[in-house]
Amino acid sequence: MKTRPRVRFDGWIAGVGTSGGTRIVLGHWSRSPFGPFSDVMLERADGERLLLAPTQETADFIRGTYAFDAVRVVPVDVSVADGTWTVTAGSLDLRFSTGRRGLLGFLLCAVPGVLARRPVWSALVDRPARVLLAGVRTRGSAGGGRREWYGARDLRPVTALSAVFEGRDLGVLALVEPPVRFGFGSVPRTPALTRVTTTVALGPE
Span 1-10, mean pLDDT? Predict the structure, then answer.
């Protein structure tokens, strides 16, 4: 059986909810097939799913892996200082703060990077992740016949948020509820920032 080519993304995923009903997922990638970049996925209260990506190339790849109702190619800028993340992506202005990692965060920090990158590890922790972090899956089928694995290496709570999208204040920090519907799983229900290695197997089965 021919092995499908795989690509990896190393970085951070932040998943947050807002009291206005919009849920936001930030991907901030220090290493990827496209170089360093960031992207934002939003799901509005009415269920519309929107991707904000910095280039057509990254937009096409992400759209080929996840499901969206609309895609916008816009500058996505991210800065981090003293536990506060500031994100500007087109008409989105997002700012959130993170707190100290808990026990699960410390346990994930102990996972060697070489292990986190292995799909077999993601397969082993998929069931515990579903139990401990409602909505989370670490492996599954993606768009275009692709398969995907997530190897988490850190977890920190998001403790505060401010967000404005298209000139409208989205409200304060809230649970990611209902779960987002971009792919085969959601981010944790409790807003969190996760360090992760994402592996994507390309092409159909």
Answer: 78
